[in-house]
Amino acid sequence: MQVKEFKNLSFTDFSRPDKRAQMEAALAKVRGQLGREYDIIIGGRRIRSENKFKSCNPANTAEVIGVMQEGGSELVEEAVRAAEKAFQSWSRTSAQERTEIVFKMADIMTERRYELASWMVLEVGKSWVEADADVAEAVDFLNYYSHQMLDLAKPQPLVDYPPEENELVYIPLGVGAVISPWNFPLAILTGMTFAGIVAGNTVICKPAHDSAVIASKLMEIAQAAGLPDGVFNLLTGRGPEVGEPLVVHPRVRFISFTGSKEVGLRINELAAKPRPDQIWIKRVVAEMGGKDSIVVDEEADLDAAVEGVVRSSYGYQGQKCSACSRAIVADSIYDLFLEKLTRKTKEIIKEGDPQDPDVNFGPVVNSQAFKKISEYIEIGKQEGRLLAGGDKGDPKGYFIRPTIFADIDPKARLAQEEIFGPVLSVIRARDYDHALEIANNTVFGLTGAVYSKNPEKLQRAKREFHVGNLYLNRGCTGALVGIHPFGGFNMSGTDSKAGGPDYLLLFTQAKSIARLKDA
Ligand code: NAD
User: Fold this and answer.
1) CA of 25 to the centre of ligand 1 (A)
2) What pLDDT score does 4 carry?
3) What are 268-319's pLDDT values in tens digits?
4) How many whole angstroms separate alpha carbon 60 and alpha carbon 350?
5) How many angstroms is it from 234 CA to the middle of ligand 1?
6) Given 130, 287, 351, 418, the catalytic residue
7) Which stretches in the chain have pLDDT values below 50?
8) Active-site residue 115, yes or no?
9) Exactly one of 78, 123, 205, 321 is catalytic; which is it?
10) pTM exceeds 0.85
11) Ligand 1 atom closest to residue 182's alpha carbon, by position in its atom list
């Protein structure tokens, strides 16, 4: 097999009429497929359960995108058995053969990129640009991890010790549970699942309810590429009914989780307790929430900073773990910043149904999110000064307007708790020392940015701003595979650095083999 060099898939330029037409055609095709029923797939077997749930369009809640199966704990047992069986052969399949299948998946996904993006526009309310970037990231994960696996399968450098012959080989762990969020429904699910699989593990995937149709599309692609049955099992259902039984199952060797801090901590705790017949310590990779800040120094290019804050705060309606939710602004430029910020938000943000190519700000994902964000807006009205938004949009969907609160105290709830939606708090800092102190004052440590033209201040940020992904003079979202390995410190997770050179090691264990040559 001729392996091409890794290259990130470029984003689609929707200002080109041909690309726009392709996306419009894909949306029309997908619209013709709405409301279909999708199966649980275990060991290649298609299963329909008695209980179903509907995945609906958040921009038009009456529209059903797909009907899904509500799995339960009995299927967890079957899934673990199927994955264990498949592990016998998949773990012995060469890295070369495994990566061939995963590279093929990347090609199929690239061919289907507009269709997959359309599903995301409709199922989770992503704008065209955000949905396209999600597909591109998923393709990148498939290619990048395949390259990493081929490197890991090469002879590893060890110190010579004649007459012994020494080897270090990376072997897979076993059966893994992948529990994923809805906000990067294809990219994160694909990355978590196929990092494990390409390394020789087999996986049971429990996607989030809100993005279960997209998860079924990933399964279609895996099957089309010839992935053997049982290597990737798709078990839809609720966290407590399917996720927890998977986490505590004694034959599950590792858990790869991305989601909220609350659920991640619970999983970590449950997984730590050995169960009867369990013969290993479970490995937990948990990537969790953030409360991400952009520091705007008095020596910043103010217009660039304002634009960076707007785009980082409101891209995908603020529903990114990396989204900016706190702008920490130097006292001397504070009032001017606020004035420019409200103006720029109005200028850049186009609210509406994301099926419209000109819309870059759609609904939040579901009624629970809508309720929770609305509650935080009420808290914000007590804790700060409302500058923009604060109200709801079109009642057809879960629309919340882009919201800005000024004069938020660094210790206020709005400044400390993750609000997974379009609510930005602006905090006044006395000086740069104070700004960095505020930037580090939450339990999280995921992304952060500093705008300043002063190289010494940037140097200080490199040392003192304690986040897994730090950006200087640019926004704090949009990490690219292989370029910005992604993952956070403290309560933001285990800093697994998805899309980085060390990620695959988390799904392997290293075995040292020494052989006395002449014996
Ligand atoms: P969530 O924690 O509600 O759910 C994540 C997954 O866990 C879902 O599949 C859910 O069904 C499952 N789950 C829920 N309860 C469970 C339980 N008791 N046991 C096992 N599984 C359970 O998160 P979400 O709303 O889907 O996603 C948003 C969150 O994800 C935000 O906090 C965001 O910051 C975080 N996130 C983090 C990253 C990162 O890389 N750090 C990336 C994306 C999203």
Assistant:
1) 32
2) 82
3) 999 999 999 999 999 999 999 999 999 999 999 999 999 999 999 999 999 9
4) 17
5) 17
6) 287
7) none
8) no
9) 321
10) yes
11) 26
